[in-house]
Amino acid sequence: MSLALFIILGFCAVVSALFVVVGRNLFHSAMTLGAFLLSVSGLYFLLDADLVGIMQVFVYIGGVMVVLLFGIMLTSQIANMRQVSGLQQRLSSDLAVAVLTAFIAAILIESNFTVSSSAPVKNTLPLIGKLFMTNYVLPFEVISVLLLAALIGAIVIARGEGRG
Amino acid sequence: MPLSYYLVLSALLFGIGLLGVLLRKNVVAILLSIEIMLNACNLNLVAFSRYIAPSDLSGQIFAIFVMAIAAAEAAVGLALVLSIYRNMCSIDLDSFNIFKW
């Protein structure tokens, strides 16, 4: 049962990622990225990571994808996309990425990871909340500072010149 | 469900995202492909956390941090794209050559 779900979700993820990468229409690519993020969220739920799965829907689909769609609509170059790279560049990139992916996959298959047989945590939300406040409180505070810096930087960059 | 299935899937998704970053000329399309790569890394982290140390959850916390960083990077990247589009009226990657001498 979980194998069937994994195959369906993995297939959806790979197909939508391929469409994002080779799609001609930029708006359709962004919408298919939403489908990709949704299938990855399903994979997180299959891995018993419920907080990560629901945060994926909130942050990525509800935040990042909406911001990217605004960027696409504001720069409005959807239709005239002459984005075909040269044939030689495409072939060499395809070959290099295929070799790299096969190398990484071969390393990951051949390695002997000591898989633990204990049961996964059923409800991760309280445990992650407690870990954020005890073990990982320093990265938590640092990332809030980073988000503040990114927000202020994005506003300053996008605001434009000569506004006083 | 062996661990290696998830690892091979995440390697495949990483390769697809990398292909998008290398081959696309539109800057927003490159940002979309970077999001695919980051999601592949997150999937790898969560799979390792689930199979090797299920009670530890540090892989999932790492994945949440990566998610926050990806959101910040998408916001700043789009601010840059908007600023460049305002100055140059095109987002074709070949015309961003003001740093070339």
Task: Describe this protein's structure.
The complex is a heterodimer of chains A (164) and B (101). The longest helix of chain A is centred in the middle third of the chain and has 26 residues, at 50-75. Chain A has six helices and no strands. Chain A is mainly alpha-helical. In chain B, α1 (3-23) packs antiparallel against α2 and α2 (27-52) runs antiparallel to α3 (58-88). The longest helix of chain B has 31 residues, at 58-88. Chain B is elongated and about 50 Å long. At the A-B interface, α1, α2, α3, α4 and α5 of A face α1, α2 and α3 of B.
- Helices of chain A, by number, come to 6
Q: What's the helix-strand series of chain A?
A: HHHHHH
Helix/strand/pairing category of chain B: mainly alpha
Could you name the ranges of chain A where pLDDT drops below 50 across 5 or more consecutive residues?
none
The average pLDDT value of chain B, as a whole number, equals 88
**What is the number of beta strands of chain A?**
0
The most extensive interface between chains reads: A-B, 80 and 71 residues
What's the number of extended β-strand segments of chain B?
0
Q: Rough shape of chain A?
A: globular
Rg for CA atoms of chain A: 20 Å
Outline the low-pLDDT stretches of chain B. none
Distance between the termini of chain A: 62 Å
Shape estimate of chain B: elongated
Helix content of chain A: over 70%
